[in-house]
Amino acid sequence: QEEKIFAGKVLRLHVCTMEGAEWLEEVPEDTTVEKLKERCLKHCVPGSLEDPKTVTHHKLIHATSEKVLTDTKTVLEENIQDRDVLLLIKKRAPPPLPKMADVSAEEKRKQEQKAPDKDAILKATANLPSRNVDRTVAHHNMRDFQTELRKILVSLIEVAQKLLALNPDAVELFKKANAMLDEDEEDRVDEIALRQLTEMGFPESRAVKALRLNHMSVTQAMEWLIEHADDPTVDAPLPGQPPSEATAEAGASSAEETAGPSSEADGEEAKDELTEIFKKIRRKREFRPDPRAVIALMEMGFDEKEVVDALRVNNNQQNAACEWLLGDRKPSPEDLDKGIDTNSPLFQAILENPVVQLGLTNPKTLLAFEDMLENPLNSTQWMNDPETGPVMLQISRIFQTLNRT
């Protein structure tokens, strides 16, 4: 009587097997999952309990939650309710351990696929004829190519200026080109970032300097301003910083005013105006060294002028500029402004190419040459341009063809 009074609640559970057998099991809620599993196996597989491993090789799964039931827990602890559906399935057998012969064969296969070491390579190539390829020579040839390309651009700019000066619409064309160059991203300061810093109380000039030094990052600029708040040189202009736009425009205006009265004929006035436009374009395309690289190299003890020269020769690459300063300093900054020999077969072949001839009459080609001359990293942009790309492609092909011969 006591067992009946204090016995737990009896649950009726619907049990299924993978073979399609179905039946009801009535068990108290304090029954362990292992006991329930034994009852299920006794019902569906008679005589299976003779092997004690049979119970461990099977598992019960709650159909609704897809949860595998733990053997040591009770039905109540597994939160099984009346009329729940359980699935009895056999566990997958673990994969058999590989035989020693299979292991040896696998190791042998891995050894055969292993890349050869240096000794094996030398042994296999001992009878091959040696070809000495000096990597420093290859690097030097690449540097010579860059230097030669600059010379070609310098000479082509002179030819393009002479051809475009004969165009009656040249002045108007280059005024438009000059206006395009006014939209230079290098000199533009992020107004929102500048306003955030000035609202914090930093002077505008210092905020502009901090933003340019930190690539327009407000957070880094603010840290720089706090760090250099007591620095006496905090308000000094950045090394290599070009003159202000007002000064440049004033100089250009005065030059135009000087050129205007001194010219009498209309043709002379147009020629002088075109010359001034060329000067303004060249002034806007002057090399702008990376301020961070300048400061870092000057802290090593180098003079500002030689640091700017090093960065100009090495396209603002700080490490390459440092090697140039510590090395033979070739090519020199003066070499960058020299043109190619106009009587050389290379230059004659370039000028005789019809695509190049047509391109030299386009003001955009001249702008591309000017830009690549002072900013070699922008060459990809001009190579992909539908107007200037074919010209650059022909110059490259002619150079490579003649360089091989």
From TrEMBL:
Q: Where is the composition biased (Basic and acidic residues)?
A: 105-116
According to its UniProt record, in which pathway does this protein act? Protein modification; protein ubiquitination
For the region Disordered, give the residue spans: 97-116, 231-271
How is this protein annotated for GO cellular component? cytoplasm; ubiquitin ligase complex
User: Which SMART domains does this entry report, sorted A to Z?
Assistant: STI1 (SM00727), UBA (SM00165)
- Extract the InterPro entries matched here: STI1_HS-bd, UBA, UBA-like_sf, UBA1_UBAC1, UBA2_UBAC1, UBAC1, Ubiquitin-like_domsf, UBL_UBAC1
Q: Which residues form the UBA domain?
A: 182-228, 288-328
- Subcellular location as annotated: Cytoplasm
* One Pfam family hit: UBL_UBAC1
GO BP annotation list: protein ubiquitination
- Entries under CDD domains matching the protein: UBA1_KPC2, UBA2_KPC2, Ubl_KPC2
**Which Gene3D superfamilies does the entry link to?**
1.10.260.100, DNA helicase RuvA subunit, C-terminal domain, Phosphatidylinositol 3-kinase Catalytic Subunit, Chain A, domain 1
- SUPFAM superfamilies recorded for this chain? UBA-like, Ubiquitin-like
At the top level, the lineage of the source is Eukaryota
Low complexity bias: start-end ranges = 243-264
Q: Where this protein primarily resides, as one coarse class?
A: cytoplasm
Q: What is this protein called?
A: Ubiquitin-associated domain-containing protein 1
Write down the species: Oceanodroma tethys (Wedge-rumped storm-petrel)
Corresponding gene? Answer: Ubac1
